Structure formats: structure tokens, C-alpha cells
């Protein structure tokens, strides 16, 4: 249990499905740190275990992964990805996205089967819509054969990138999960560097946009910053990569999560 009095979310507004209301009955926005412990608002809550699957206790603070599962669950997760039909299909989909992002996609590989596109959409082959990655496409190249993909990812890893496709945030989380499942520390550390580069670029763009908005009306305070597309994906990336992150990387990502999840 976290102490609200020392939380970074103390003074941040939070959306609630429990319909908090003031003395006049009007809906009000909840300030997270002001919510009484175990207060679920005006909506009645009944707790029971009907239909519930027994889950392990939440890992202790500072122990990761922890969002969807804990360290003790990893053997079972790995087995289900390997030994069940659903797990195998999910794993192939994950590899399709992560290999494409890194510029190593092979449309003849096992993970690229079944080929549902059959070249019918810009030469695309494989089971997933890789065009959503929005990698700049060279004339004459299929969606799954972007020559710039490897260079874009490498520039994120080495910190030289000046821009990147926004959909990469979604794929960062998949790559972080892949690294955790396969214990790929080297790739995990590369992804950590890429994440910090992407985060720095996003923060700079957000700051410039907010400064421009504030300049138009200096007397009116701006609302909390917009939540970037990568907010919850950044949380997954942080969770899966945590044990490979440097202290500076942990601090940078944690601060971003606290700053931009104000409404969750």
C-alpha cells in the first residue's frame, strides 16, 4: 500500500467512474490524494470471489514485472506462449512487429505465417498490418521491406534520432515483453536507450507546443499536459525492462509516468 501523502500523484486530478459529487450534487473531478482510503465514491461495490481466478499476491514495491504478472508467474507465461496454440499465435504476432521495427523482418520466417496479406496491400506479407508502423516507405519497396527501419531504430538506440514514428511506442512494449520472456538482456538495454531517446524527443515537442499555447493567453494557466500515445505503453515498457534499466533511466521514465498519467 502506498502512502498518498508522499505520492507524486497527490495533487493530480483523476477520472472516476464512481461519479464523485459535491454538496449540491454536481459531478466534481476527484483529486487523487484527497480520496479517503477504500472510498469507491457513490457507486455501491459488492466484493465476492464468484468466478474469480486465484492470482498471486502483488509483488513487493520495487519488484518487477508487476502490472500483469509477477516474477513467479514467468515460467507459466513462457510455457503458455510456447505450448498453447493461442500463445504461439500471439508470440508470432509480437515477433512480426518487433522484427519489423528493428529492420529485420523476414516474410518467409515462421513468425510471419500465416500470410494473410499475400502481397495484396503494397506488397505486404505476414499476419499483421505492419504499415501501421509508418516507417518512411521508399518507392519500389513493400511495406514489410523498409530499408530505413534498421536505421531509425539504431538512431533511437544511439541517441542521434531527431524524429520517429509515433506507433513505435506500441511496439516498444512488445519488444520489452519479448526481451523479458527470452531473457534478452542486450536487446533490453538497447530498447532502454531507444525509449529514453524517444521520450526526450516527445518531451521537447510537448514543451514547445505548450509554450506556444501559453504565449497566446499568458493569463490563463494551462491544463495538465496532454497524454502522449505512449503513456500506458511506456508503463509496460518500464515494467518489463525494469531490471535492466540504469538508475537514471528509471528516474526519467518514472517522472514521465507521474507527469502524464494525471487522469488515470
Care to describe what's here?
This protein is mainly α and 264 residues long. The chain folds into 2 domains: 1-54, no CATH class; 69-260, no CATH class. The chain has 7 helices and 2 strands, in the order ββααααααα. It has a two-stranded antiparallel sheet. The longest helix is centred in the C-terminal third of the chain and has 32 residues, at 185-216. The chain is globular.
Strand content: under 5%
Q: What kind of sheet is the major sheet?
A: 2 strands, antiparallel
Overall pLDDT confidence: 87
Question: How do the strands of the widest beta sheet line up side by side?
Answer: 1-2
Radius of gyration: 22 Å
N-to-C order of helices and strands: EEHHHHHHH
Class from helix and strand fractions:
mainly alpha
How far apart the termini lie comes to 18 Å
Name the poorly predicted regions.
none
Number of helices: 7
Total separate domains: 2
Q: Helix proportion of residues, in percent?
A: 40-55%
- How many strand segments? 2
- The gross shape turns out to be globular
Question: What are its keywords?
Answer:
single chain; 264 residues; mainly alpha; 2 domains; two-stranded antiparallel ribbon; 7 helices; 2 strands; 2% strand
Entry summary:
With 264 residues, the protein is mainly α.
Amino acid at each position: 500500500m502506498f502512502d498518498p501523502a508522499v505520492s507524486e500523484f497527490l495533487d493530480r486530478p483523476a477520472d472516476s467512474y464512481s461519479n464523485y459529487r459535491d454538496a449540491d450534487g454536481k459531478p466534481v473531478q476527484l483529486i487523487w490524494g484527497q480520496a479517503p482510503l477504500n472510498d469507491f465514491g457513490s457507486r455501491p461495490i459488492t466484493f465476492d470471489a464468484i468466478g474469480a481466478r486465484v492470482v498471486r499476491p502483488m509483488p513487493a514495491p520495487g519488484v518487477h514485472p508487476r502490472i500483469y504478472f509477477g516474477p513467479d508467474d514467468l515460467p507459466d507465461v513462457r510455457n503458455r506462449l510456447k505450448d498453447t496454440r493461442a500463445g504461439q499465435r500471439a508470440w508470432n504476432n509480437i515477433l512480426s512487429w518487433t522484427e519489423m521495427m528493428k529492420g529485420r523482418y523476414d516474410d518467409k520466417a515462421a513468425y510471419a505465417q500465416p500470410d494473410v496479406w499475400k502481397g495484396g496491400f503494397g506488397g505486404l506479407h505476414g499476419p499483421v498490418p505492419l504499415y501501421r508502423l509508418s516507417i518512411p516507405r521508399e518507392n519500389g519497396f513493400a511495406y514489410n521491406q523498409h530499408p530505413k527501419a534498421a536505421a531509425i531504430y539504431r538512431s533511437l538506440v544511439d541517441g542521434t534520432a531527431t524524429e520517429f514514428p509515433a506507433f513505435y511506442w506500441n511496439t516498444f512494449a512488445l519488444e520489452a515483453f519479448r526481451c523479458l520472456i527470452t531473457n534478452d538482456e542486450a536487446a533490453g538495454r538497447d530498447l532502454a536507450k531507444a525509449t529514453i531517446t524517444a521520450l526526450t524527443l516527445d518531451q521537447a515537442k510537448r514543451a514547445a507546443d505548450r509554450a506556444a499555447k501559453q504565449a497566446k493567453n499568458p493569463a490563463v494557466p494551462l491544463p495538465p499536459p496532454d497524454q502522449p500515445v505512449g503513456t500506458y505503453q511506456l508503463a509496460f515498457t518500464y515494467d518489463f525492462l525494469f531490471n535492466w534499466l540504469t538508475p537514471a533511466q528509471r528516474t526519467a521514465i518514472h517522472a514521465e509516468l507521474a507527469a502524464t498519467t494525471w487522469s488515470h
